[in-house]
Amino acid sequence: MKKIDPTILKETAYIFAFSLIFSTLMQSVFLIIGKWSYTVLLGNLLGLAGGVGNFFLMGLSVQSALDKTEDDAKKLMKISQSLRLLMLLVVAVIGHLVPVFNLIAVVIPLVFPRIAIAARPLFMKK
Predict the structure, then answer these.
(1) Contact at 8 Å (CB) between 81 and 37?
(2) How far is CA 83 from CA 36, 42, 66, 80, in A?
(3) What is the Cα–Cα distance from 15 to 33, expressed in whole angstroms?
(4) Domain extents for the chain?
(5) Rounded Cα distance, 11 and 66, in Å
(6) Which of 54, 30, 61, 60 is nearest to 116 (CA)?
(7) Nearest 10 degrees: Cα torsion 25, 102, 57, 90
(8) How many helices and strands in the chain, by DSSP H and E?
(9) pLDDT category, 124, cuts 50, 70, 90?
(10) Whole-prediction pTM value?
């Protein structure tokens, strides 16, 4: 097995930290509106793991694709994207079917990595 590139670990840590901050804010909103329960916390943890895990797996796929020919790299990335999307769908379905998870608290953290990526230029040094 190939060693994980330090850049992947660094960027995943950034995504995790950003998502954790937003998850805390989401917990606060549920608490303020009076809808907080342990199901919100568990759903948040499931969604957080799914979102950050998706980003990490994408990084590993990109790392693997760099060693391949262009056509093989495209195929690998398409397969990776399909499988990661399926994984996110499974996380959402688990959040819906298993009563210990609040579905809204599962789905919202899946978007946090996208927000973190969009906000990244605001925190980069020029």
Answers:
(1) no
(2) 32, 24, 19, 5
(3) 27
(4) 6-120
(5) 17
(6) 54
(7) -160
(8) 5, 0
(9) confident
(10) 0.92
Is 11:93 a contact under the CB 8 Å cutoff? no
DSSP one-letter string for the chain: -PPPPHHHHHHHHHHHHHHHHHHHHHHHHHHHTT---HHHHHHHHHHHHHHHHHHHHHHHHHHHHTTS-HHHHHHHHHHHHHHHHHHHHHHHHHHHHSTTS-HHHHHGGGTHHHHHHHHHHHHS--
pLDDT score of 82: 98
Q: Residue 60: what residue type?
A: L
Placement of tokens 């262009």 in the chain: 70
Predicted pLDDT of residue 51: 97
| Nearest C-alpha neighbor of 19 from the set 53, 61, 70 | 53
Asked if residue 65 lies in contact with residue 76, where contact means CB atoms within 8 angstroms, the answer is: yes
Which tokens is 75 given? 């195929």
